[in-house]
Design goal:
The longest helix is centred in the middle third of the chain and has 21 residues. By secondary structure, this protein is mainly α. The chain has 4 helices and 2 strands; from the N terminus they run αββααα.
């Protein structure tokens, strides 16, 4: 993982390309990330909060994930819908 961070390269997880959030795209992701950050502030950072986060701020979660993956919003919504039948934590 350190190599991934140091070289600014993407990695593949379950066939999905995951990229680092970059400062050059700050204006795109900051409005979504701020809402998510405020939700998780002062909470136990565990899988249990993911369902609540997704229910409360699904649009922001999808928008943030589209900034760091090779999936568009529609694909992420479909993936989330499939995951809700099993385990949503696999998305994160």
């Amino acid at each position: 993982m350190t190599f991934f961070l140091a070289t600014n390269r993407s990695i593949k997880i379950n066939g999905i390309e995951v990229r680092q959030i970059q400062m050059k795209d700050f204006d795109i992701w900051v409005m979504h990330a701020e809402v998510l950050n405020n939700f998780i502030k002062d909470q136990n950072h565990s899988d249990e909060i993911l369902t609540g986060l997704f229910k409360a701020h699904g649009v922001q979660v999808i928008s943030t994930m589209s900034c760091i993956t090779d999936l568009d919003n529609e694909s992420l919504v479909e993936l989330a819908a499939e995951g809700s039948a099993s385990d949503q934590s696999d998305l994160f």
